[in-house]
Amino acid sequence: MRADLLQRPRVEIVWHPSQEKWEEFAEALYANLSFDPKQPLENKPGLPVRFWSDLDHIRKNIGVEAAWKGRVAVVVLIDDAMLEDSEWENWLMALAQMALEDYERMRVVPIVESSQRYANVQLLGQMNFIEKGTNTVSPDKQTQYLLNHVIISLLNFIESGRLHYEVFLNYVRGEGTKLRDELVRNFEAYSYLRPFYDERDLIAGAPYRLRFQNVIKSSAFLAIRTDSYSSRIETLREFEFAKREGRPIVVLDALEKGEARSFPYLGNCPILRASDSLDLHKVINILLTEIFRFELLRLELQTLKEETDNTKYSRRLIVTYQTPDLLSVSHQIFCRGKDSEVESPRNFSAYIYPDPPVTYPELAILQRVNEKFVFLTPVQLKAMGISRYETLEKLVGQPEFEIGQEPLRGLTVQISASNPLDSDLKDIGCRKIHTEDSIIEFGRYLIAAGANIVFGGYFGSGSVGEWLLRILKIYGHSESPQTPRIRAYLPYPVGIAISSAEKKQLGSLMYFTSLRPPQDVNADTQNGQMMPTEDQSLSSKYVWARCLTEARRKITKSVNAIILIGGKEIGYKGRYPGLVEESLFAIEEGKPLYLVGCMGGCARSIFSTVAQESGWPPADAFNEELQKSQDKEFWSYYNERIAKEASEDLSIDYERLKNVFYEHGLNSQSIRCNGLSDSENVSLGHTMFLEESISLVIKGLSDVNKNLKADQQ
User: Which among 217, 574, 585, 622 could bridge 556 via Cys, Cβ 3.0 to 4.6 Å?
Assistant: First the structure.
């Protein structure tokens, strides 16, 4: 297969702007294909997924006018509103024609909710569509049914030659038969999936164990765990074989009374609890998601195996499609082959497994197999500067493995991020779920790489603080002396607004510091004892601005590097938009700065300004007229008062601000010392792909940390 077809496809979800009801379905599809912020440990396919309902933006990004690369799947939500709009109708016909002409690189997945069935057939030509409201599925199961068929379409897209996918049903006869039959009935709605089970698929005279193993080698595996499951030798033998072969596995837990002694090797697989209210379409959804994730990894990582199989490093590298556990690791390390060429376990160096990285307690257990053995995900590999698999000699070509699992250990990094305006997010095909995903993923990888995170803000619903807490509860554990892994600076008056109970909860997870107001607003706050009012009075807004400036400067001085993501450009509290002021302090202090463009907003405006790029949208954060129009009266009040009361010049001065960014540009110390090349910084500012952004930032931070440690020696 061509190299460009081995890349993960991106998914674009499109609907008519009058039908915002589709957004809920789009978010459900995002949670299936990309990342579910509520389940940070869940393995997902990790596809880039964007949402579109503006035809101009669609044409620029995925339509006839777009200059797109790689593979793209366009999920089009077709209803009467789209069919009755001639402009949309023409676009849809052109899109269908594009997909037919380049079917290897483009797949259109139409979901139709329309009475105009024959119009759909005419518009889409040879293309089949998923029909919403089918009589075979009850209304409350429709969303799950549609999600499942989209995943099947994507499976066929990446492997068009595969006509169906077998699912081996692993169960105890009698106890599991009823649930098996219910599952088989639900499989009838998905002809792509073929259930295989013993009572139906045994062949007289054929050795059943050998036949089952041959089926399992190319199938998904669905285990129905009932009370007697762990006491049945053949059932466990089938499960162990599926684990050994690295197949996609889902476990359906149907225990009723319990087990006298459990089979201990069911771990690191998706597990669902069977109950009377269980939606079996949901079971199939989990199974399809796991199959899709597995097949994507298999296609991507087969090049790694092929390129290393005939090299001197091939026996020092293990590549798997599953999150490692002791059963799979011990088999792959100790039982590889049966001939005399099997090497001692000490000669293996690296074990590559799918993202996300395992937590610290899991890693500590896995490394008991061999303390020098290193477990890494593809994103962690890229972060180490290993961008092509044929350069893996960097990883395993040394007598001793030199690259640690925590390249950022001891480094203190600020994450500054917030949601851009809804309109700004829609311009780049994103919603708030994308921002939440990006913050959680950055937090996960920074902590997994050993960094300490510094955050300034609050912990309310939908805040960056809330998202970081969610990931900290999973990834923040370590036996090293640098725990807790997050330090929060709470600007005045955020710190005094937190209750004693909230402080106790925060204190169990992180360090936090409640900052005092600067001296020139002590009178306004009764020496830091009184909350400024939330009204729009000029004096209250002044206090907020001064306290935010004070907090941002203290944070900048306390960290080794700053990462900026998203951010509002208007409608903020403070002297300047928050990310602008933080990047200004980073430039003044010469601290390494990473401008992540994938969420647009203020971070992208800062990048376009320092890069002095032409043709980009106006950088609203630096547009003085726009900013002044928001609150001209406050500017005058602020500058008049700051000149009288503050000990330094902290006025609002956009001319001076722009000069700082223009003069320093990409040649500023903050950019030059961030460990990335010019082209990598440009990629970081431009890319829409979160995985690439994370890899670049951690790669740069690894270099920064290496230099800091060298300077300290």
Answer: 585
